[in-house]
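Suppose you are handed only these lines of text.
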Amino acid sequence: MFSQIVGFIRELYKQPEGFIPLHAPLFDGNEKQYLNECVDTTYVSSIGEFVNKFEDKIADFTGAKKAVSCVNGTSALHLALKLVGVEPATEVLTQPLTFIATANAITYCGAKPIFIDVDKDTLGLSPVALKKWIEENTILSKNGKYLINKTTKKRITACLPMHTFGHPCKIDEIVEICNSYSIPVVEDAAESLGSYYKRKHTGTFGKIGILSFNGNKILTTGGGGMLLFNDENLAKKAKHLTMQAKIPHQWDFIHDSIGYNYRMPNLNAALGLAQLEQLQFFLKSKRKTAEKYKTFFSKLIEKSKSNLSTGNDDELNISFFSEPANAKSNYWLNAIFMKNKKERDRFLKYTNDNGVMTRPAWHLINTLSMYKDCQVSELKNSIEISNRLVNLPSSVIK
Ligand SMILES: Cc1ncc(COP(=O)(O)O)c(C=O)c1O
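From them, the structure of the protein bound to pyridoxal-5'-phosphate can be written out as follows.
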């Protein structure tokens, strides 16, 4: 069965031999022209027209009021958390099934993550688990303004859900719960450019959303990130902080707070703008690929069932993960569930040994040495997903 899967992927990517990566970028538009323009005009750093244009176009595409660029998604997360008021010795509610940057950004603020379980049908933070944890573990501060963790006596200063592999989580319910406790929501939409929940772009539900344009994302700037805002004043503040908090002046250097060197260079934005011109095509191609995977796996399972009834084979227990209800996903990384961890590891070894790159979901962040003393909710779904999920090659097909 594993050989049939490898065969299918090789056919899909029209690559009968050689290495098939998990997600390679495609540069098929104006990338070289725009990069040359940067060199020719000498605007290669964080001042230049491509950065401004890229920000405006991302705001248009996502429906955010304003977009503010960053050097990567991790710095965008750091800044977003600071802007919503995450301070040292406070706590942030997030999911354990995520890339390490989500938790690290909380740590950069001097705060601590609390890990809440995800939903099996979205792979993202579970609103039910979130509500339950809040109800059982927190009390309202005396002035009624903050939630306090009953165990640690610390303030909960934000909630940071993530749209896993591009699949939207139940973000409207999460925002509603958090609003009822005055907890600001920062959406980690690093993986979900082009994904919508109830027809609204991910990253635009919370107070701030962030995107990543790392080389493995649906659209790349080499390295890069973006903050998405519905509040224009907050966006202004963010932009100021990404530029060392320097007050604009013809020659003088006056800074009014501690800022960061986080603004995206023009070179990266030039690449991004050329990529953005192809995004609709990328999205179409990726949804087509997901449809092909889905059909292939359902046929494979049917075949295995009929083999089973004739006593010919072991039952194949693989299911393709489809976009959640109410969502339109970018299918950034396609995913399947294997029967169990042992079967998953056998599959990972077989595919990688045969030149087809596959990878497991992340180790849950609360199991890593730096985060093992953090508070957690019951994590049944996260553990199951972490043990059984495999990501399949998902690059755009021309
Ligand atoms: C969920 C998630 N959050 C944050 C990041 C960080 O983005 P970057 O690599 O651009 O710093 C990534 C991706 O790399 C990610 O997948």
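What can we learn from it? The radius of gyration is 22 Å. The chain has two domains: 2-26+280-391, 31-278.
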